[in-house]
Amino acid sequence: MTKKNKGSAGRRWLEMGIKVGVVILLGVVLYNQVFAREDIADIQTAFSAHFRSGNLHWLIIAILLMPVNWAFETLKWRTLVVGFEPLTFSRAYRGILSGITFSLFTPNRIGEYGGRILIVKPENNWKAVIATLVGSFCQMLVLLTLGFIGLIFFAQQFLSLDPFVLQAIIFLGAILVSILLFCFYNIDLVVPIVKRLPFIHYLKRFVKHIKLLKDYSSRELTIALFYGTLRYITYSFQYYLILLFFEINVPIGIGFASIATIFLLQTSIPLPPIIGLLTRSQIALYVWGHYTDQQVDILAATFGLFLLNLIIPAIMGLFIIVTTNVLQSLGVDGQKVKTSEEEE
């Protein structure tokens, strides 16, 4: 066997190994979070009971909003990558779904980056990572801004805080959001800072592309922020609809304030979803416990949102990954990578 044939066989085995590994890891997530949960029988009972309650239409609407949620994320990310790679919407959507698959078993969902670079040209991989970082910063800005507003409303309603403490929370929240907003619209200031970091010469390939931050206009960043806000509203509304399905009839104002509070508290927990779901459930029990004692329904609603917005899209993303030439997409394989126009 020639060196070329050996190398080709090695790449095929590596390609297969990567895909089998992703399948196994996703299988672990599904087993632990869907089939092996200690409370899965109670959750199944809650779902069965409420399927017959006449509230099924709320769940159906929440399901129909699932692709809308990720469509807004696609539009946001596409806005940030179109300057160096004009992806079609459908191709960008496939990248988002692939990223969800990888994110389920990585801390703080960093696997999203690996999934998204699979659908850009190898020479643009680092740029896609930077665009994803900007998009994540954008979503965090939306989450913190609306989260602090929700927390203030929630604290006024349910927590007996000293007025001074509440004012301090408002002040610190406003300062933090203002700083982040300034950084977001002056994101190009990161370039000279990064270049001065020690040992940065080890990341030459990354630093070479970080100048992309200078190319983003205020208009593009505002559009990304707009799509990020629409996405936040969409998945918050999904959560509220699932609560209605489980007959947790929280008034809409308190409901959205509580949802914003839950999302804000979850942001401070850098855990992969496979571990973080337990913590998220505890946060939900604490927040909704101020309004209702339907603990099983609260856990079922939290699980339902997780299943709807992460597990189902991740399974869809898995099919995309197994039909993608991963090594070629990463630039390991020397073959020519098709452009989005050729594939579409």
What does this structure look like?
With 344 residues, the protein is mostly helical. It has one domain. Helix content is 74%, strand content 0%. It has helices spanning 3-35, 40-51, 56-64, 66-81, 89-103, 111-116, 125-158, 163-185, 190-195, 204-209, 218-245, 252-267, 273-288, 295-322, 326-329, 340-343. Helix 1 packs antiparallel against helix 14 and helix 11 crosses helix 12. Mean pLDDT is 83; it is low at 334-344.
Short description:
This protein has one domain (15-33, 49-333). 74% of the residues lie in helices and 0% in strands. The protein contains 16 helices and no strands.
Give keywords.
344 residues, mainly alpha, disordered C terminus
Q: Note the quaternary state here.
A: single chain
- β-strand number: 0
Bin the helical content: over 70%
What's the tally of helices? 16
Rg calculated over all Cα atoms: 22 Å
Please indicate the count of domains.
1
Low-confidence stretches: 334-344
Shape by Cα distribution: globular
